[in-house]
Amino acid sequence: MSPSGKSLFIANRGEIAVRVNSAAKALGCKVIQAHSEADRDMLAVRLADEAVEIGPPQASKSYLDVEKVVQAAKAAGADAVHPGYGFLSESARFAAAVEEAGMIFVGPGAETIARMGDKVAAREAAIAAGVPTAPGSTGRIETVDDARAVVAEIGYPVMIKAAAGGGGRGIRVVETDEDLARLIPQAQTEAAAAFGDGGLYVERMVTDARHVEVQILGDGTRAVHLFERECSLQRRRQKVWEEAPAACLSAASRERVCAASVALAEAVNYRGAGTLEFLYEPARDEFYFMEMNTRIQVEHPVTEMITGVDLVQEMIRIAFGEPMRLSQDALRIDGHAIEVRVNAEDPANGFMPFPGLTGALHIPEGARFDTMLYEGYAIPPFYDSLLGKLIVHGRDRAEAIERLRAALDEIRIDGLKTTLPLFRALVDDPEIQAGEANTAYLESWLETNTLDAA
Amino acid sequence: MAKQIQSPLPGTFYRRPSPDAPAFVEDGAEVAAGDVIGLVEVMKTFHEIKAETGGANVRFQVENEAPVTAGAVLAEMD
Asked: Which of residues 36-75 of B touch A (CB under 8 A)?
């Protein structure tokens, strides 16, 4: 079945709703856009064929309300629902409710989301498929003695992680027996409160870690990889700058991690777009599986820029039952791409959020800017601060960095404080230019550098 | 004339530190200067709202989890 002529309900907002809209339109779909009371004026509503209000500004009463979203999609006569990222995109209950209501969920089945969303189950699936994981506990840790037994094998420092956590939440670094005895019960209590599941596991701490993630696409039977991204530049465990491919990898290491990722995707009969996140330890040339995200990611455009594949269109085609159109042999890396996340935050003032009124916009030619902005748009304070993503491509990494510098010099977003000044400083940083920055680099850079007010 | 505590930021107002915790300040209570009376969530970050001066008989003007604008009166007191 082709998506052409079918209707797609977008259960998300901001820049990703705009991105899904453009992919759906290119496929000939009718677009129905969900929005909260605070999002009546958002760009994705203006671009949609139809818009449906689903509730009050607070996400818990609108975008995160499974029943409301499913009812709205059903009432609007939607054939399929695209969850975007965040919100309900990794809710197994939502995926199941969409299908029970007779609509297509653009993503993997509810069982796959549930399995990959449990960190212990995902790690077990990864090990079974031959995906490299960090040395650590094979299952859940119940007691401090369990943790001590693991540490006896792998040594300090170790990380305690919440089985139900994700995105860096619920992680503790432990270096001594005393801290282990103190922090295991504390982490159990906190994980139970935060995630409704007190399950923990323990892993070896990785030094000079790089964040490397593999993009995969599956049709339920066959899967391909679209190479990897590197997202080591992070603040508070949120990515701010992403690249494809990862400059820290050799061709052999790339082949190894990408092939293992395809094996895991095929082992779980993966359907749709997904990402396997790894820590890479350069000194050992080893990868450690962290988690799998069963949705499209914020930083997917850098992969699109080096492969020429429209990932959002492909995931919609697959959801409507088309077989995979890509063959691994035909996929090649073309040049290098970099994305920076432009947030409504003031980097000169502790990254204070700035939900202001958008003034004039000047977007450089030759750069891609995936954004929710238009001139005169008032940014609501109720949601995350991502305004858009500035993406450049070059024949190699050096050229991509040059093009990023040129684009940063030229782009203008009046009326708002944004993170653009941060990137204007980072693009000239020697460590970043050399591709030597690890996942701790940006935090320490921010402690020693001050940024002028924009 | 009643004293007012205003929100410095637009966002969502919370009267408790977490859903299951008691309110920072109950209606009718007294506060001292610097006491936290609530949180405003703006773009997924939380900012403490403090009383600038002390006061008695605090009367909240905004429900828990209600959207607020910058400058909105969150509470009045004597």
From this structure: 41-45, 65, 67
